[in-house]
Predict the 3D structure of the following.
Amino acid sequence: MAGTMANPDHGHALVESEPQNTTVKKKLGIGFWLSAAWLALIVLLAVLAPILPIKDPTETFRASQGGAGAKAGPSADHWFGTDENARDVFARTIHGARVSLTVGFAAVAIGMTIGGSLGMISGFFRGWFDRIFSFIFLVLLSFPALVLAILMTALLDRSLLVITIILGVLAIAPIGRLARAATIQFADREFVMAARAIGAKPWRILVRELLPNVLIPMAALGLLGMAVSIVAEGALAFLGLSVEGGAISWGKLINEGRGTRLLEDQPLIAFAPIVVLFLTVLALNYAGDKVREYFDVRELSI
Amino acid sequence: MIKLIAGRIVLLIGLLLAVTMLTFGAMNLLGDPLFNILGPVAQSTDPRDQPDIEAARADFNLDRSLPVRYGLWLEDVVVNRDFGRSYGSKLEVNDIMKDRLPKSLLLAGMALLMGVVIAIPWGVWAASRANKPVDKLSTVATFGIVALPNFALGVLLYYAFALKLQWFPLKFIDNEGLYMRLKSMFLPALTLALPLAAVYQRLLRTDLITTLQEDFILMARSKGVPKWKVLFGHALRPSMFSFITVFGLNAGALIGGALVVETIFNIPGAGSQIVESIIRDDFPVVLAIIVVITAGFVVLNLLVDVLYSILDPRVRS
């Protein structure tokens, strides 16, 4: 769902299944490894897209030049057929992964770095700093994220960097809130008290004692956040508000293929990116849930 | 309760002021309002165009400084409930909103209603068969639905039910009576409702499974109360808390989703309007819609809190 960035509870809602039997040794399970394998495959394809033996996503195969022509169905030459401009749908879907994955990964990296450190500092030192940032997080979360995103895209130029930063800014609040909650919880534990007792400096406690513990729930949320960012970029691209120029992303491809006539003639133009996007989001959500379950961090995600 | 409502109203006013101030400032500083009103004429140095330019500047208060302009805008909105005129079409923003907003409200209302109507029986059904194969299958289904972004789900539903099966019209039909209006709104609302229902169902199911292990359920069953009556009559109400909480939180997703869905199904609502207006830098229209969205979001959350305290008396104190 697009625009759920403002709502970290949303992904969490699906995790809360019945209490696990604690005597059984926990495993990540086959589903996790399948998800990981799919993600690895997609990342590999996206990275290697320029050197793989696939078609050029911008090359046209017009019938007049001996190609398959526009809106051709699947064939040995064009696995998913061709689009309205006689370009190869398979190649475009693979190349579309580049923008989608870059934005998803980089946005979460921004959210983790800024949101994570702000949240941890807020949770550890408390006081006025905590009050200010808790309020900023609240304001950011009390506004529909997609509306905020399109407002920003309207005011700024729409380069890959700007889109990534916009989605990264939107990831700061949910990740920051989680980091804060986790820090508060761990700060009361014995090992932190022991570190204080031997006279460790606050910054040392923060980095050496708290960070490794807080990173686990953040990693689980990060996987879900990547899915949310990819979907959000897709929604922006779908509305024609994402990266300008020739850049291809899954959302843009779905938008290109959704015209009534086009859906009738060659549904694969829209369906191919839909399926790939669906599997990627599914894999990220599932892997995130499994990581959370594995480390038993359910109670942390407020 | 009064304290809760008063607190939320203060928060709403603060939030609205902050959001409109930021939007107003950013749009005026980063964009060029005069150009958006007049088009290329705005940059003309031809003396014959100067009267037009001066008239437009005076008409839209562009000859004042930015804080004064914001003050005038705020005064108009608060005192006269007048959101000004569109830069593009020069129509009254109030008229545009009167035309667009009801369609979006119908969409959102139908989506929420359908989400609840699907989720409650589904959740009760899954909880009464917890951990059996059908329940596991329905869990897989919820995962699938949530992983399908609304723009993808919308295109798939459009393809299957409007284009191939032709059960529903291809676009929104406003002028052929209520039945046609609801029918043409069905697929867009379903696009928003399915992911909502999936989330609601999971929460309801989890809470219900916990409730069904309580003694008063065993008591009711041993008294001979039929199973369906226990599920809906005894167990449902105390199992609704997480569901109600998320009900409000999801409003943000619903508003974001409406932008996309209105675009797919050609609904001339507020969502498609804000996208058009943002592309054309039509600031007065954008501001008006932002105000409505923010207010709606906060009010909906307040309603949820009130509902929450009605359902669970412990929250009231």
